[in-house]
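Reminder to self: tokens first, then the designed residues, so the page reads top to bottom the way the pipeline ran.
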């Protein structure tokens, strides 16, 4: 009697599967989805999911890291050549507005929407995304600190408070996008929010530079 050779697991594109999972988690939330739903969304078997990502939580972590990596690429494309801190912040917040409301994907920010609240059983998912959200806070803080160091902002600029304020604005923009606010409204919110750090721009010295005059 002939025996059938054991079939190998069907190969899959890991990034495509990960992006499919990311989109599904983004739309429905981490806790609300079942592993069976994830399998269907990703087009893979549960054994392949565990083999590739370790666990449901591991999958969430990779989806969050992919979201941050995508934003880093966008930021690297738009920021070169923008020297002022305010200009760089404006570009970043423009990306937030477009990504949250006009990207063609799920609305809002993945890091805010995927697991904003969970039962104690999935508390690790909330903690994981809180850690990832801090990456956006660090980007904003770094820009503000650069502005102070370069002399664009006055030394008394409250960098920590401004960072917390702008991060809260980003999170509010995410909720607004989920609630149906169009991208133009989000951009208006961003413009108004950035008028706050603009108050700390150092005044231009109106008197001529003696060294420059001597030249």
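Designed residues (215 positions):
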């Amino acid at each position: 009697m002939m025996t059938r050779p054991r079939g190998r697991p069907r190969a899959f594109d890991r990034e495509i599967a990960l992006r499919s999972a990311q989109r599904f988690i983004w739309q429905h939330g981490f806790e609300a989805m079942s592993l069976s739903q994830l399998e269907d969304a990703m087009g893979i078997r549960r054994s392949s999911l565990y083999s590739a990502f370790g666990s449901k939580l591991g999958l969430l972590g990779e989806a969050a890291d992919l979201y941050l990596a995508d934003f880093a690429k966008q930021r690297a494309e738009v920021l070169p050549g923008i020297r002022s801190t305010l200009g760089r912040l404006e570009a970043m917040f423009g990306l937030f507005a477009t990504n949250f409301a006009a990207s063609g994907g799920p609305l809002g920010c993945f890091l805010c929407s995927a697991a904003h609240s969970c039962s104690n059983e999935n508390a690790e998912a909330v903690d994981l995304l809180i850690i990832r959200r801090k990456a956006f806070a660090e980007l904003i803080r770094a820009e503000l600190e650069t502005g102070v160091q370069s002399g664009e902002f006055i030394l008394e600029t409250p960098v920590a408070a401004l960072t917390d304020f702008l991060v809260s604005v980003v999170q509010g923009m995410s909720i607004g996008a989920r609630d149906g606010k169009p991208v133009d409204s989000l951009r208006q919110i961003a413009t108004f929010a950035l008028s706050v750090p603009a108050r700390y721009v150092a005044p231009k010295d109106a008197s001529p530079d003696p060294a420059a005059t001597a030249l």
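Residues 1-8 have pLDDT under 50 and may be disordered.
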